[in-house]
Amino acid sequence: MISVVLAEDMHMVRGALVALLDIETDIEIVAEVDSGSDILPAVFAHRPDVAVIDIDLPGMDGLTAAAEVHEKLPACRTLILTSLGQPGNLRRALEAHVSGFLLKDAPPSKLADAIRRIQAGERVIDPELALDAWSARENPLTARETEVLRLAAEGAEAADIAGRLFLSVGTVRNYLTTIVIKLGARNRVDALRIAREQGWL
């Protein structure tokens, strides 16, 4: 029996996934969570074979949570199941050492098959997405610039960002200017759009 922890914040989608996997005689969902912050505690409590994780979760995004699972409990393999199919998200997922990356619009039979293959030690990635990621532009932003932009995306002003990252307001403004230039954007809002479309945030 393959044990699975499922992380999905949309109740209807989570219910559908549970119903879908309940049909499988060799797969058992041992825990369901609706927040990224709850993934690691659930994984430690249940020691599943596979954690199926959405990217866009409250509390902590799914890719950050997947990286933590890999670091702290590497025996648990991770499968990202998402509607966010940008190449940048796949690159980030691979950096987080996920075992699989599947889009939510894939045929339902693919999910159970992916869980079995991942548990067997294979890596499962949507082939079309893999090709897109191969040819996609790399993120030109540094980790700190990405962090500044992520906070700006949450609506934080320069002074708030400075306080949270222990920087001066001038340094934050310099980062934001550099980000706009590096992305070839018209302004900060355009930079956010470009970064989101590429899956860099």
Automatic annotation (TrEMBL):
All residue ranges annotated as the Response regulatory domain in the record? 3-119
> Which PROSITE patterns would you find in this protein's record?
HTH_LUXR_2 (PS50043), RESPONSE_REGULATORY (PS50110)
Does the keyword Cell cycle feature in the UniProt annotation?
Answer: no
Q: Looking at the Swiss-Prot or TrEMBL record, what is one Pfam family this protein matches? A: GerE
Annotated HTH luxR-type domain ranges read 134-199
Q: Which UniProt keywords apply?
A: DNA-binding, Phosphoprotein
- According to the UniProt record, list the residues that bear 4-aspartylphosphate: 54
InterPro entries (UniProt xref): CheY-like_superfamily, Sig_transdc_resp-reg_C-effctor, Sig_transdc_resp-reg_receiver, Tscrpt_reg_LuxR_C, WalR-like
What does the record list as coiled-coil region(s)? none
Which Gene3D superfamilies does this one have? Answer: 3.40.50.2300
Q: Which PANTHER family does the record match to this protein?
A: TRANSCRIPTIONAL REGULATORY PROTEIN DESR (PTHR43214:SF42), TWO-COMPONENT RESPONSE REGULATOR (PTHR43214)
- Its recorded name reads Response regulator transcription factor
Give the organism, scientific name. Answer: Streptomyces oryzae
Taxonomy of origin reads: Bacteria, Bacillati, Actinomycetota, Actinomycetes, Kitasatosporales
